Amino acid sequence: AAAPVRLWVKTEPFLVGVLPVQLPARLGPHYLRKIAVYARTRASEGCFPLLSWPRWRHIACGKLQLGRGLAWLYFELFHSLFRRDPPRRLEWAEAEAACASADELERERSQAGAPSRAGQSWGSLRDILTLVFFPLGQLSVDTLQFLLFLYIQQMNKVSLRRSLIGEEWPSPRTKSTSLTGKSASENKNWNDHDHHAFVQSHLSDMLELLLELEQLTASSHSTHSSSVSYEAVCALSFLIEGTMNKSRMVHPLHELALQQPCQGHNGYSKVSRAFSFLKLESWLRSCLMTNPFGMTACLKSGKKLTWAQQVEGTTRRAKIACNTSLVPEVFPMVIMSQVYKQTLAKSSDTLVGAHVRIDRCNKSFIYLLSPLRSVTIEKCRNSTFVLGPVQASVHVHGCDNIKVIVICHRLSLSSTTGCTFYILTPTQPLILSGNQAVSFAPFHTHYPMLEDHMAQVGLATLPNYWDSPMLLCKESGDMSVFCLLPPSDFYTFVIPFEMEGDTTETPGGLPHVYQKALSQREQKVQIWQKTVKEASLTKDQRKQFQILVENKFYEWLVQTGNRQQLDSLVPPAVGSKQAAG
């Protein structure tokens, strides 16, 4: 008989929760088991069931010898996964921005809390099971979920065995096929098959991490009689969700596990409020399937969008798909590939809160002017990307000579060459491995709805760490991997579209040295205009002078590639196949 439930691994924890970098060895499974035991034995000290930032800092820095910056990175990354109310995010940003020193910031992180919720509704069970605060106000996270979060950071670990048999290296058999098929070097954070395989391969280890002390052997492993608490299964809902058969309503794992038809299969006991370890593991394995709302389903069955024109005379075919027609109550997903030699501009409900993947675009200008959940830009060249505020993360990989203009919670880069990032971000940009000639500059543009979109995703103008990247790579001692864009090369960016809204200038303004450079340039223009006016040219001389200036301007447009952008801004002719979408 068919299983009464269908379960799958959630995309979001892997997509925006797993750093695309090798996990420090001291956060491997052996040490996570030690952390789990340590936390449970110190429940009264702020370690369990909630782990406070001061206690995690003690474990990470004092026990595991990790740097404080890295300890905060993992804690804050997990913390930011959950969709707190935007006003709460803005309150935290205001408190952090008010700190005048690193010590004051650390005290704020150690004491940060929220107004008492006594007498108020907690809302959904997910609110209780995800991010909460101690009554005393210390910032804290769910201990068991945080352990699972640290465990799945192994997703990008390179296996020596797989390297030896060739699975980690490209070959004709595994040649990339862009939007369809799987590449050996494909971003695992997006690949739902990899998520499913990872959980299936490591399910036993993850369940053992969640066991109570009396259910473990001296070496922190399970026995044939071990049981898994209901609270542990609630924690596993961080990674797994599903539906009852023939239903489109998505439920967290712990709700499905208590359904009457499932209890006989997963070994649930109403007396002990716990599950048999062996039966639960077997039940999970038998019910787990590939995510029906993930990237694979989006490409296979998602709605095809005709946002991009097909450029004549090229074999490239732009492909854009979304899964909004498939998804009942999860984040939408938009995937675009091979946009070539054109300007694509959208502000659409399809994009609001979406995970966006942009792949293999070249010589294009892409404007996505809506509040987004996350953005991944891969293998793009010679292009400019102007993005609406991104609530979670922007990851750029394998790109050459691109510009990214964005306000985002987090930015990470790997294997990029000659790219420039005009950013506003409340966290340090992460420079991972393989980057060359990275340039950072302050965010320098606006569109009418920008501040409204910032408020929707809970992003403020301060704090802003655009100029303070963190290097998480073997070149971490080599600060020449990046530079700050010289003010002499800095120009503001004008978004050439009309929209309704109230934003009329760059949010937060510009740093003094960049504003000064713009003012000096503007002053030179005014002096030039005055010189021309006072030159007393005849009518013929003015005409010749105008032709000369226009020719020089045209040469500049061609040399800089701006001619192509201006041409692509012209609306397509009547009868074009391009649709509004």
Number of domains: 3
- Tell me, what's the shape? elongated
What are the low-pLDDT stretches, counting only 5+ consecutive residues below 50?
Answer: 114-136, 160-185, 573-581
Beginning-to-end CA distance, first to last residue:
42 Å
Considering DSSP H and I runs of 4 or more, what fraction of the residues is helical? Answer: 25-40%
Structural class by helix and strand composition:
alpha/beta
Arithmetic mean of pLDDT: 85
Number of helical runs? 19
What's the β-strand tally? 25
Largest sheet: 15 strands, mixed
Strand content: 15-25%
**Structural Rg:** 26 Å
Protein name: TBCC domain-containing protein 1
Keywords: Cytoplasm, Cytoskeleton
Subcellular location: Cytoplasm, Cytoskeleton, Microtubule organizing center, Centrosome; Cytoplasm, Cytoskeleton, Spindle pole
Pfam families: TBCC
